[in-house]
Structure formats: C-alpha cells, structure tokens
TrEMBL record:
InterPro entries: Enoyl-ACP_Rdtase_NADH, NAD(P)-bd_dom_sf, SDR_fam
Annotated catalysed reactions: a 2,3-saturated acyl-[ACP] + NAD(+) = a (2E)-enoyl-[ACP] + NADH + H(+)
Gene that encodes it: fabI
Pathway: Lipid metabolism; fatty acid biosynthesis
Keywords linked to the UniProt accession: Fatty acid biosynthesis, Fatty acid metabolism, Lipid biosynthesis, Lipid metabolism, NAD, Oxidoreductase
Keyword Oxidoreductase set for record: yes
CDD domains membership: ENR_SDR
Molecular-function GO terms, alphabetical: enoyl-[acyl-carrier-protein] reductase (NADH) activity
Protein's name according to its UniProt entry: Enoyl-[acyl-carrier-protein] reductase [NADH]
Length: 264
C-alpha cells in the first residue's frame, strides 16, 4: 500500500531542517503519493528547506512569517493560483523567547506572552481559515502540540499556555469546519531533538527522563509522528476530528516514575 495520498495536494508549514517534525511528516506523505508545497521562515531557513523540498519533488516553496498576516494571505493566494484547491495542511510552527523558557512561568512578560500566542496558537486559526477557503471538497488540517498544555513540564512555561490554547482551537475549528467535511486534529508529540526543542532549558534532561519512564521505554522519532500524521491526514481517519492524538511512547498515561527509576 503506497498510494494513501495519491491525487492529494497539501501544504507543509514548519520545516526548518531535516530534524524538523514537519520533515518527518512530509516524507511519509510523499511516500504515499501526496503532492507537497512548503513554506519557510526567512531566507536562511529557505536555503535549508529548498534542497529538502527537492527530495520530495515539491515545486511550490514559498516564504511565510506567521507574525505577518499579509505573508500568510500571500501563501494561500499562491496555492490558489497554482493549484486551485488543496486537500490538507500541516502546521508545525511554534516559538517563544528562550529567555522565558526557563525559570518561573509567572515571570513571563506581556510582550513575549502575546508573541508566543500569535505564533504558536493564533497562527493555526489564521492558516485554517485561509486553507478552508481553498478546500471545496473537504480536507484535513493538522497541528503539533505538546503535553505541557495539560500538565506542568519544567521550563515549558508560556509555551504550555499557548499549546492549551492551540488544543482548544483544534476543537473549535473542528466544530466550525465539520459541516464542510474539513477535519481538524493535533498530534501531541513526545520530546524530539529539534531547533525549537533546544530552546527549552534543560530539554536534554526531559528527553532522557521520558526515555526511561515512558511505557515503551524510549523516545519517539519524527518518522513515527509522520506515520500518525499520515493516518490523520488521509481517508483512514475520515471519522476523526477535534482529536489530540498522543505520539509519545505512552508517557502521558503515567502517574509516577518507573520503579527502576525510584530505586536508583
Ligand atoms: P523546528 O524548529 O524544526 O520547527 C519549528 C518551526 O517553526 C520552524 O520551521 C520555524 O521556522 C517555524 N516558525 C517559528 N516562528 C515562525 C514564524 N513567525 N513564522 C513562520 N514559521 C515560524 O522544531 P519542531 O520541534 O519540529 O517544531 C514543530 C512543532 O512541533 C512546533 O509546534 C513544536 O512546538 C511542536 N512540538 C515539538 C516537540 C519537540 O520536542 N521538538 C514536541 C511536541 C510538539
């Protein structure tokens, strides 16, 4: 079976390099026959994204900074003029000032709170609205979240608050667009070593802790997020919307460290 996405076209937002979760997703979509377009944030990222896009035969590679609504609108104008319509969208974008991804959440500044919310939460609502305009035949929208939305994770701070808002947005958008057969879901990924992940203070300790204490006793890889994304973006998940799907080796179901951890 290698044609789950045959005849489907979609946009992948958030590839920074070949460690990006969005890249893990893009490769799986391509392997199943999807035609992909990519966005990149600024020319420095563009130089890394273009060779990756080549590897998956993508022709449409457009700049987009989600802090700028005109930039977002222009991406969808390009998609409409080149393709007419799209079938799916992947939003794998997040940002907060790394100086506030440590210490107390209570010390979050107003400016960084707003910026984090705009980039990491509101941008999904904005791109969903633009994408829905060019999804006349229904479609599937996917964003990426983290369990710091529902449980306190050290140093995740304002990103946890933004992810809580993002997950609520998934539910409201799913309800808004359900009548048009546009499904909206999120994957809550376990920790992955990426550029964004490296911005969180002491991330490596979280990584090894979750590795030792998850039911599967390992961390997940971007190809595993890609597999679950493929399911949610394809007809395999035609009855699934408004869902937060965990791809985290089961860490979120645990209530305490393993006995091995406690005894050592
Ligand atoms: P990454 O650094 O590879 O990707 C983050 C992307 O966000 C980059 O491509 C960056 O260009 C983009 N971005 C940031 N600000 C932007 C802006 N203003 N406009 C446009 N794009 C912007 O890291 P990643 O870990 O692959 O992150 C992808 C998503 O996965 C994020 O939402 C992140 O919060 C989420 N996530 C990451 C982890 C993890 O441990 N790495 C775990 C769960 C969820």
């Amino acid at each position: 079976m290698n044609e789950l996405m045959k005849g489907k076209r979609g946009l992948v937002m958030g590839v920074a390099n070949d460690h990006s979760i969005a890249w893990g997703i893009a490769q799986k979509l391509h392997a199943q026959g999807a035609e992909l377009a990519f966005t990149y944030q600024g020319e420095a990222f563009g130089r890394r994204v273009k060779p990756l896009a080549d590897k998956v035969d993508a022709r449409l590679i457009v700049p987009c900074d989600v802090e700028d609504s005109a930039s977002v609108a222009s991406v969808f104008e390009t998609l409409q003029s080149e393709w007419g319509s799209i079938d799916f969208l992947v939003h794998a974008i997040g940002f907060s000032d790394k100086n506030e991804l440590k210490g107390l959440y209570a010390d979050t500044t107003r400016d960084n709170f707003v910026r984090t919310m705009v980039i990491s939460c509101y941008s999904f609502t904005e791109v969903a609205r633009e994408a829905a305009k060019i999804m006349p035949n229904g479609g599937s929208l996917l964003t990426l979240t983290y369990a710091g939305s529902v449980r306190v994770m050290p140093n995740y701070n304002v990103m946890g608050v933004a992810k809580a808002g993002l997950e609520a947005s998934v539910r409201y958008l799913a309800n808004d667009y359900g009548p048009r057969d546009i499904r909206v879901n999120a994957i809550s990924a376990g920790p992955v070593r990426t550029l964004a992940g490296a911005g969180i203070a002491d991330a490596r300790h979280m990584y090894t802790y979750q590795q030792r204490n998850s039911p599967l006793r390992r961390n997940i890889g971007i190809e595993e997020v890609g597999n679950s994304a493929l399911y949610l973006l394809s007809e395999m998940a035609s009855g699934v919307t408004g869902e937060i799907h965990y791809v985290d080796s089961g860490y979120h179901i645990t209530s305490m460290p393993t006995l091995d951890e406690l005894k050592n």
